Amino acid sequence: MVSTDAEDLALVSAAKGGDKRAFKVLMQRYQRKVYAVAYGFLRNQEDALDVVQESFIKVHRYIGKFEGNSSFYTWLYRIVANLCIDHLRKAKRHRDVEFDDGLRHDNKDESPSDLLPHFGQFGDPSDMLRRKEILAAVEASLEHLSDKHRAVIVMRELQGMSYEEMAQEMKCSKGTIMSRLFHARRNMQRLLTEQLGACLPSQDTAEFEEARALERRGRHPHTAEVVGGGM
Amino acid sequence: MQTQSNMPSMASELDEQLSAYFDDELDEAVRASVEAELERDPELAARLADLTFMRTIVAGNLEIQAERVPRARFEQIWDSFEDTLERESRLQEAAETPPKWWQRLREWVRPVRMPLAAVAAVGALAFVIARSVEAPSDDADAELAANTQEQQASEARSEDPKQVPEAKSEATSNDQIAVAPRRDPAPDSEVFPQPEPGEAEIRRIEFGGQTGTISQVEGRGGTTTVIWVTEDEDPVDSERSL
Questions:
Q1: A93-144 confidence digits (pLDDT tens)
Q2: CA-based nearest distance A159→chain B, Å
Q3: B148-171, pLDDT tens digit by residue?
Q4: Does the CB of B55 have a partner CB in chain A at under 8 Å?
Q5: Domain A113-230 has CATH 3.40.50.10240
Q6: Which 8-state DSSP code applies to residue A18?
Q7: What DSSP line would sit under A74-127, residue for residue?
Q8: What ranges do the domains of chain B cover?
Q9: Chain B residues near residue A179 by CB distance under 8 angstroms
Q10: Rg of chain B's alpha carbons, rounded to an integer?
């Protein structure tokens, strides 16, 4: 059985030789994944579709320079991330706001991780995704993140980019990416907790709140010490 | 107190390391310390499970959003992409087509186009001036100017023969201003004093009781004769008193 990477490389090789059909097969293979990334960044269907088309054009223009040092989808995702960041920068410039908008949900609103309830009680996340209200809750949570935090979450969770690759895309250090991703995840967890809690039936909510209270009281000994010591 | 204030930052640092551990971005030593902490602390292990949950639900949500886009929308994008490629291809072909001979000539001349135009303009101007200098005087005009310019020319000839053509051209160019036709009735010498031959005819000057000077300059280029009249200024009070 031929692996996906090997199939990609065969298609890339054919496309480099001018095989239009091979190029189309290659792009159709990834068009929905490209859309998912772009939609994650931009939160707008038409903008995301524009990025899909722009990525086709860029891949077609530069496929001759793809040397196969990484997998094709890694190379493609970097192109898409680059297009999305450019898109956000342009949009922000129109609104006279920097892309690095760190004002919203970046640090000051964060709850400490040890005060956040765990998701384990919700069950299997793959099962949860079948429910419309859960999808809406995840959408609302992503919507409330800052562009910067959403970008690192999409690049890491969906695209699987390394910190080094993300640092190159965002023109910052690996340390900054590590810190930014940590804060982004904590914000996402807080937002998801609020949104998912609102989705649950009342009985589930009661159980959720009870579990949350139990966690705070019994499962955080060091937190209790800090509070007690402070008094 | 130091322990109390450091506890949250230590927990935060551990959380940050846990996040990087989840992404497999820690070096060997730190990873080992996080793994040891995970074995010791079930709460930390639960937070690691939270990260897995979030990754699954975020990535899963975005993939589902992508699945919801109708296939036809992607077909439209593909058509638009092909149109763009075709347009770019046509532009490239146009750029690569060899230029026509006249386009090549125009490009070849481009660097010297302005200097050539300037030289041509100067040449045309020189030609016009030369024509105006060398052109023979009209007989009638010469006749009209006989009482002034011919006399002047004859004087000039006696001094410098080369100046003759200049003097003739002056006659043609200035006859409307400075030269009166000979066949006009002779002016009253008392009212209109006659100038000396070779000078401009003065039709009428009124100084209104003042005194003044009549001056004349004749150009050598064959084109200019200027006559001007200046009244003497009134004497200042001190002079009057004198």
A1: 766 555 544 444 444 455 566 667 788 777 788 888 888 888 999 999 999 9
A2: 9
A3: 444 554 454 545 544 444 444 444
A4: yes
A5: no
A6: T
A7: HHHHHHHHHHHHHHHHHHHHHTT--S---SSSSSTTPPPGGGSPPSGGG--HHH
A8: 2-67, 136-231
A9: 16
A10: 51
pLDDT in tens, B25-83: 999 999 999 999 999 999 999 999 999 999 999 999 999 999 999 999 999 999 999 99
Q: How many angstroms separate the CA atoms of B37 and B84, rounded?
A: 56
Do the Cβ atoms of A39 and B43 come within 8 Å? no
Which residues in chain B have their CB less than 8 angstroms from residue A153's CB? 58
Cβ neighbors of A219 (< 8 A, separation 6 or more) are B42, B43
Give the whole-angstrom CA distance, residue A143 versus residue A137: 10
How would you class A15 by CB atoms within 10 Å of its CB: exposed for 0-12, middle for 13-18, buried for 19 or more? Answer: buried
- CA-nearest residue to A131 within chain B is B61
Residue of A nearest to B62 (CA): A36
**Domain extents in chain A:** 4-94, 113-230
Q: Are A151 and A41 in contact (CB under 8 A)?
A: yes
In this structure, are residues A150 and A102 in contact, taking their beta carbons and an 8 Å threshold?
no
Whole-structure pTM value: 0.61
Instruction: Quote ipTM for the complex.
Output: 0.80
A4-94 domain in CATH 1.10.1740.10? yes
Cα–Cα distance between B17 and A182 in angstroms, integer?
A: 9
Tally: H helices and E strands in chain B: 10, 2
Residue of A21, A23, A32 for testing the chain B interface, max B β-carbons within 10 Å: A32
CA separation, residue A134 to residues A116, A157, A205 (Å): 19, 18, 14
Instruction: Tell me how far CA of residue A197 lies from CA of A118, A164, B211, in angstroms.
Output: 12, 35, 114
* Strand positions, DSSP E, B17-141: none
- Write the residue in A28, A35, A189 that is nearest to B54 by C-beta: A189
| Pick from A49, A192, A219: CB nearest B73 | A49
Q: How confident is the model at residue A91 (pLDDT cuts 50, 70, 90)?
A: confident
B216: helix, strand or coil: strand
Q: Do the beta carbons of residue B51 and residue B25 sit within 8 Å?
A: no
Q: Who has greater pLDDT, B38 or B3?
A: B38
Neighbours of B134 (CB within 10 A): 9
Give chain B positions within 8 Å (CB) of A52.
74, 77
CA distance A60 to chain B (A): 9
Which chain A residues are closer than 8 Å to B49 by Cβ? Answer: 118-120
Summarised one tens digit per residue, pLDDT across range A165-197 is 999 999 999 999 999 999 999 999 999 988 887
